[in-house]
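dude i think i finally got it to work??
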Amino acid sequence: MMHHIDKTRRISTNMNQETEVCNKMFRSVICRVEKFEVKRSHRMSVAFETISILAAVAIVPLVYYILQSSSQSGFGRYMSLISSDTTYMMQNWKEFLMSAASSLPLTGGIVILVVLLVAASSLRRTVYYSTYSKNVKSRLSTI
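look at this
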């Protein structure tokens, strides 16, 4: 009977040691994966941050382009007509809107909208990846 108890203890001890080795190996693999995720999310955050900055810088020349093209097309005159003679504008609103629409600088407007969307999307992704990186770092500290 004593021999059976010793054998059971040895088996139990061996199983505990194997379980501990498996747990250490598991923690090591998880730690490496999460360190990789931290590096990846940091790279993505920097990339999207750069895109956001470039898009914000690109907005300045685009605004100048829109201002210049609106003054060349006569769109500014239509806008001044709104503030100076609103009764005439309200009486002939269809013609006024058609004339104002034909003088709009559409190319610059579309380009600036695209750049603003890119900047907003990149900024959103920057925030996402930076918070994701912080969350993974905090999980890493608990392992």
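The chain is about 95% helix and 0% strand.
im so relieved honestly
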